[in-house]
Design goal:
Blueprint: H1 36-62, H2 78-97, H3 105-114, H4 126-143, H5 145-172, H6 182-186, H7 206-211, H8 226-244, H9 247-255, H10 257-269, H11 275-294, H12 297-300, H13 304-314, H14 316-336, E1 351-353, E2 358-359, E3 364-367, H15 374-381, H16 385-391, E4 406-409, E5 419-420, H17 424-431, H18 435-441, E6 457-459
Antiparallel strand pairs: 1-6, 2-5, 3-4
Helix pairs in contact: 1-13, 2-10, 3-4, 3-14, 4-5, 4-14, 5-8, 8-9, 9-10, 9-14, 17-18
Length: 460
């Protein structure tokens, strides 16, 4: 099959625009500066936030606790052990670095679920989890313009790769709808990189990727490969589902260490690993944090905002475990209902193996295809036509090229070193394709100029 490249997905011009509001009576006009009343209002808010922020940092510094209380059990799956460690490291990294992506937003989405301000224990039920799903569904449907646009753009671009990712999920034995897991993970950004070090559309940490045999070096990072990372994701889901027997627990486990710890703990006690028991497991952990905070005298003296902020930070990993299934199902429902539907047509390509050879600069050949002229070739390769003509003057047919003729491509002026034919750039020149097309097809190739290992497969 040949590659039909249609360019990167077009920008979405249908995203909601910020509403222009009229200037309030108390707002100063341009050039008047800030009024005294406005200054006091802004200054008061700033001081309140500053004091609350300092109180939060001081409290957390004085009350650091060791995390991760689950122990090892005999016979547990190797990948579960590995993923538990990796996810725990990610959660700890995000906590220490003050990651804010879900620190506040996830608290809002759980709102009534957490009942932090109410006396008594936190309790979960299906209605409350349905409420969390409704929150994310409204946000992705347009209530949050940034999330809405990200979902529209991501779903559109996923169309290029959809059939190939779904094929990999199907081949592993996982329902193809879970291939859209890349949307809540990265909004289908193949080059996405989180602050914790997770990379690619399906967001793999290095240790997990290595355990799944994904290649990672200075030239190649297969976590960015849409097809191979999809298969890796399917393998993780398969292992998790085999261990839990519940898709919601599986979804939680893909993005959080607590689901992995729950599975191990439940198995050690001979208890079912279903979603209902998982929610009870999280209830217990959340109530432990809530009770610990409420019995702390210094915590009791803080402002309401500071208390909410501290609680949000303390339950950061837990809130993501809770949010992930509702978020996934919210996106899935929007797509199923046709509210998110625009997609690019699937790309077509074939795979070729790199045969690595070293050549001197300037010995790269281009085989003329039907309909190609000197000017068309020059434009395609971004080379001045006169330079291409000058370099091939000794070829008598340069002015009237025929299909099958071979012309030489002049070396890049900046390259004085020896040139390896097995680079992505060299292959683009040989195939008469733009480097943009080749990069799009092979996003896992980090360095287009570097020689690829002999036997590497690339898409053309």
């Amino acid at each position: 099959m040949s590659f039909e490249y249609k360019g990167v997905p077009p920008k979405n011009n249908d995203a909601p625009k910020k509403k222009q509001t009229s200037r309030s009576k108390e707002e100063p006009k341009s050039g008047e500066g800030v009024t005294r009343r406005g200054f006091l209002k802004v200054g008061s808010a700033f001081i309140t936030a500053l004091v609350a922020g300092r109180a939060v940092d001081d409290f957390l510094t004085e009350n650091k606790e060791a995390g991760g209380e689950s122990g090892e059990i005999n016979g547990s799956e190797k990948i579960i052990d590995e993923m538990e460690k990796v996810e725990a490291e990610r959660e700890q990294f995000e906590y220490e670095k003050g990651e804010t992506e879900y620190k506040t937003e996830s608290i809002k989405s759980l709102g009534d679920l957490l009942d932090f301000d109410k006396v008594g224990p936190i309790r979960f039920d299906p209605e409350k989890m349905e409420g969390a799903k409704s929150y994310w569904k409204e946000a992705y449907a347009g209530k949050n313009p940034k999330l809405h646009k990200s979902l529209l753009d991501g779903y559109r671009e996923w169309g290029y790769w959809r059939i190939y990712t779904e094929q990999r999920f199907k081949s592993v034995g996982i329902p193809i709808e879970y291939a859209l897991l890349a949307l809540p993970e990265s909004h289908w950004k193949v080059n996405a990189r989180s602050k914790s070090g997770a990379v690619g559309p399906y967001q793999f940490m290095p240790k997990t990727a290595a355990s799944l045999k994904l290649i990672m070096n200075r030239v190649i990072d297969e976590r960015r490969d849409p097809v191979k990372s999809a298969e890796a994701c399917a393998l993780v889901l398969k292992e998790l589902y085999a261990a839990s027997g519940d898709w919601n627990v599986t979804l939680s486990g893909y993005n959080g260490g607590d689901a992995w710890r729950f599975i191990k703990e439940a198995k050690s006690k001979g208890q079912p690993t279903n979603y209902g028991n998982f929610l009870k497991y999280l209830e217990e952990k959340l109530n432990k944090i809530k009770d610990h905070l409420r019995t702390n005298k210094k915590f009791g003296s803080l402002s309401h905002e500071a208390k909410r902020e501290i609680f949000a930070r303390k339950i950061q990993g837990l809130s993501e475990n809770l949010n992930y299934p509702p978020k996934f199902h919210a996106i899935e429902e929007l797509i199923r209902e046709g509210k998110i539907r625009e997609q690019q047509a699937p790309i077509r390509f074939k795979e070729e193996k790199i045969i690595q050879t070293e050549t001197a600069p300037g010995r790269i050949e281009h085989i003329v295809a039907k309909g190609e002229t000197l000017f068309k070739i020059a434009r395609k390769l971004n080379i001045p036509p006169q330079e291409l003509y000058k370099y091939n003057r000794r070829f008598s047919g340069i002015k009237k090229l025929q299909p099958g003729d071979k012309i030489e491509i002049p070396p890049a002026k900046k390259k004085a070193k020896r040139y390896f034919s097995g680079s992505l750039t060299a292959e683009a020149l040989k195939k008469g394709k733009s480097i943009q097309e080749m990069r799009f097809l092979n996003p896992h190739i980090l360095d287009a100029q570097a020689p690829l290992p002999h036997g590497t497969f690339i898409r053309v």
